[in-house]
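Notebook entry, structure prediction.
Reason for the run: the old model in the group folder had no record of what sequence produced it. Starting over properly, with the input documented here first.
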Amino acid sequence: MTKTCDVAIIGAGPGGYVAGIRAAQLGLSACVIEKDSPGGVCLNWGCIPSKSLIHHASQFSALRDMESLGVRIDRRGFKYSEVHALSRQAANTLAGGVSALLRKNKVDLVKAKASIAGAGKLRLLDERGENSEILAKNIIVATGSRPLSLPGFSFDEKLILSSSGILSISQLPKTLIVLGAGAIGCEFAYVMNSFGVEVALVELGEHILPGEDLEVAQILDASFRKSGIGIYAKARALSWKAVRGGVEVSVEVDGKAQALQAEKVLAAFGRSPNTENLGLEAAGVKKDSRGHIVTGDYGRTTAPGIFAIGDVTATPALAHVASREAEIAVEHIAGRKPHEARVDLNLIPSAVYCEPQIAGFGLREDRAKKDGTAFRKSTFPYRGNGKAVAIGKTDGLVKILTAPDTGELLGCHIAGYNATELIHELLLAKGAELIAEDVVDMIHAHPTISETIYEAARGVGDRPIHI
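New structure, fully documented this time:
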């Protein structure tokens, strides 16, 4: 059986299904091929279930606040298996929602493995072992990524867990070593610690969250240490061995070997692109040394009619990046002129959903100093905000970096309550080419956490009120 369409998309993650829907909206016939559940890793084994766990971890931690009011809470009936079940329910609900959205937009969803079999041709193998073909004028590769495994720390999902593996366990370990303190490692360290697991966090870089501004990362570092998480920065994991009761990991810290023991290890080293067994090389699609598909404007690859979006490319492995790249590619295919030919790296928000949350975009102060980039800095602490004081969320700050001569917003970074929501006000200002003075001109409701943005913006002009 052979299908034909204008656009065939391999992968139904946040890049693939958005590409299919946008193609249909623009009058193109679209087919999305997915071998697993719709929604990709993000929805099924990443963003959504992990945020469900984080939400319930935050609620569990808040029980201590109730006890400070004199309420006595018996935690002996707590079952992590119920928390885990809720995270799976959230993922399954949204996977069904993606399927419904594709049907609503008349996008064909085919459950099969796909590979490129020539110009404009896909070969499909379904779960029954039957073969079929799709002929498409354009092909979009959106197969996403998987947890990166480093030599010596292969995942067995029993002692050495991947980020997917730790989302699968329904019983908590008593102790956990997290290797890698990026967003994934820090989020799981927070979740496990909140539920009473003893956590050690090991990071090769100079500080946790090495991809974030140093000053905001230090706020999360202090919070983690206060909550009892052991942090080992500038530390290299050398090897591991199974011991009675779990795992022993040999770690080199400041040139000295140290042995850490725990029931399980979470290896959160990053992501690896799913670009194997797709027929890319035979189709003339070039990859870089790390396996990412090389793309130009609009997601075009080195092969005519083949595009790539999301984690299979070298742009940041974030769901919101994949979705935007999907729209750019499809609008180009449809003959439209997208607002941008590529995603602007300076307008990509980062978001880490621990407590306190971390969010930011653009220039980082530590990198600016290292590179000799001139900037002006304004910060405002959460402790100076009325709403933050009222609700007991005073750990955090808002930082705005501007160009000294023009006042252009170069970068903004937030650590604190609701940071992942707040960042978008400053991101919108940056995208609209506004300056800090324009943010000040907008009246912010009082009392709100968003007034931290207002005050930090006032500080750019040396006229803060509440500090």
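Summary: The CA atoms of residues 236 and 252 lie 5 Å apart.
The old model has been moved to the deprecated folder.
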